[in-house]
Write a structure and sequence with these properties.
The structure is a homodimer of 328-residue chains.
Chain A: H1 6-13, H2 17-25, H3 32-45, H4 51-58, E1 63-68, H5 74-88, E2 93-98, H6 103-115, E3 120-123, H7 130-136, E4 143-146, E5 157-161, H8 163-175, E6 181-185, H9 191-207, E7 212-215, H10 222-232, E8 237-240, H11 243-256, H12 260-263, E9 265-271, E10 276-277, E11 281-285, H13 287-303, E12 311-315, E13 317-319, E14 326-327
Parallel strand pairs in A: 1-2, 1-3, 3-4, 4-5, 5-12, 6-7, 6-8, 8-9, 9-11
Antiparallel strand pairs in A: 10-14, 11-13
Helix pairs in contact in A: 1-2, 1-3, 5-13, 8-9, 10-11
Chain A binds a DNA duplex (16 and 16 nucleotides) through residues 5-7, 15-19, 21-22, 25, 27-31, 34, 49-50, 52-59.
Chain lengths: 328, 328
DNA sequence: TTGAAAGCGCTAACAA
DNA sequence: TTGTTAGCGCTTTCAA
């Protein structure tokens, strides 16, 4: 048995479809009695508006796509949550696409985006070349870049700078007497990785200390391996340049070689809603805030597409730090 | 400037819209020349079929909703991934909704489901009463329960039993000489939690040992707290009844009190694609397999809704276990 | 091998 | 305050 349409409701209530529509959407004044008749009919027929018809008619879907590099990362989960909250207030629904830090998959989803009709796109890209990215972005689609920005790309975006936080952290470690301060760098190319590495290098140069850098990749074993190498190279302090790597390295090291704790001071990353941090010091990223801002921005863009491009830069803050795991 | 419609293409190519449609969907034979003319027109106008119109016409959206209790949990992430892969093969798109283990939020999404037109629903419910759940489920919507099943509910579902795995694990711990074997139970009511707890209790009864049970909640601090209490109560072995709690407890304990490692043997949970496990022994859940099966099942249901209800029960297997964190 | 045209269910402009 | 109706863009039946 097919489900009831707006026609059925109109007929049963003895009114026109226009009236039914207006009752449902509260889009013009309808007398009390009429409203009641319509509502009764709706209940009786268990009528639900057909979203596809409505979408076709209005040209909107109420859906926004978020292309995420790693849905399992606590950092992105926290952005997702903030986005969901922000968007649902305006009855928009967030749809997720997970790229696993792969540009191939990201391209795939961007293609999908052309087929599927989303009202907006939020993108934490894995691409590093502005030209390559723009070539794949659908035209006429309200878009906000989040977390990662590309040099030379004039687009709406929200990201967090932690140049200062990394720089200051390195200086502090040196002040504590550390000479051999190691660094575990994130996936090459990603804008945030680059900025942080630069901060480390600048600080070490300023301190006239020799840098110890290990470059990780996106495998979970990569970070512990980097960590081990830095220890072997004699580092007494290590800066780890993102949250996932911090967790991966420390969970592994602290459980395998608990004595390491006392031999090395670690400055890691965490987001502002983290369950715990194993690092001695943490650089805290306002991921929730970023999600809220991205959400608000995309809603703005949807309602007035001609708005000027806006770039929002947030600053990471530093946690004074207490040794050891801490549940927040 | 509005984007081109199928009419524009038809006009430019000098054919009917029917022909254009058939060229696009390869749904009837079209001569080579005509095909080429149409394709040229499509390219020239940069035409893309309007998904909303297509959806309205065909009555399908190609979207499936997955209501997840905790999107940040590695266990569910792994199911999600398997689902995505399975569904995308048939051009279905997975949409996620995160309930944070809250029935209120779940209800909210189930309501949304009525408005939004998804082709199917995959649900890992937080509800424990079959009646309450069924009252909120939209009728006529192909639905598959995943991970958690409700007693007395005749619905399509895939879940993992680990009764045997828990039971045997407890017996093995006893065989190793442990007398005081503690247990950290998961959120009350959830079917998997109940089954596992039962297995523990049955095993302890069989062994004629006194049970030591601590019941956790969904807060991240809960599991470490339970763990501490069990240690204080003198337990030398602890079984932790899900993956998140295993990680939460062990990350905290092992980093705060490394010496604990040698005092207690831990049997925890992990999924089959885990990055690491800190536990000495692990009960492995075939989460990927579960995702694949749920995906296949929902596709079946969509194509032939009258199929008989099917319940798939998978078995957790046990990892022989090696002490300490292990990256897989 | 191709085309004409109905109609999916809804919204909103226009009319009353 | 309410109704009539065009038409969103597509698929698909029926006819040629």
């Amino acid at each position: 048995m097919k489900s009831a349409s707006i026609n059925d409701v109109a007929r049963l209530a003895g009114v026109s479809t226009a009236t039914v529509s207006h009752v449902i959407n509260k889009t013009r004044i309808v007398s009390k009695e009429t409203t009641e008749k319509v509502e009764a009919a709706i209940r009786q027929l268990n009528y639900r508006p057909n979203t596809m018809a409505r979408n076709l008619r209005t040209g909107r879907t109420g859906e926004i796509l978020f292309i995420v590099p790693d849905i399992g990362s606590v950092f992105f989960t926290s952005i997702i949550e903030a986005l969901e909250n922000t968007l649902s207030e305006q009855d928009y629904q967030l749809v997720l696409a997970n790229t696993h830090e792969s540009w191939e998959r990201e391209k795939e989803y961007l293609r999908l985006l052309n087929r599927s009709n989303f009202d907006g796109l939020i993108l934490a890209t894995t691409q590093t070349e502005a030209d390559v990215l723009t070539a794949c972005l659908p035209a006429d689609m309200p878009t906000v870049l989040v977390d990662r920005k590309l040099a030379g790309l004039n687009m709406n975006c929200v990201w967090v700078t932690s140049y200062r936080a990394v720089y200051d952290s390195v200086l502090d470690l040196a002040k504590q007497g550390h000479q051999k301060i190691g660094y575990i760098a994130g996936v090459a190319g990603v804008s945030t990785s680059q900025e942080r590495l630069q901060a480390y290098q600048d600080a070490m140069a300023k301190l006239q200390l020799e840098p110890y850098i290990e470059r990780g990749n996106s495998l979970p074993s990569s970070s512990p391996a980097c960590f081990s190498r830095l220890i072997k190279r004699g580092c007494t302090a290590i800066v780890i340049s993102n949250e996932t790597m911090t967790d991966d390295a420390l969970i592994y090291m602290y459980s395998q070689q608990p004595e390491i704790r006392r031999q090395v001071t670690v400055c890691g990353y965490r987001h502002d809603n983290a369950r715990y941090s194993l690092a001695d010091y943490a650089i805290i990223q306002p991921s929730g805030r970023m999600g809220v801002i991205a959400g608000e921005r995309i809603l703005e863009l949807i309602s007035s597409p001609e708005t000027e491009t806006k770039e929002v830069r947030l600053k990471a803050r530093r946690d004074k730090g207490r040794a050891g795991a801490r549940h927040y």
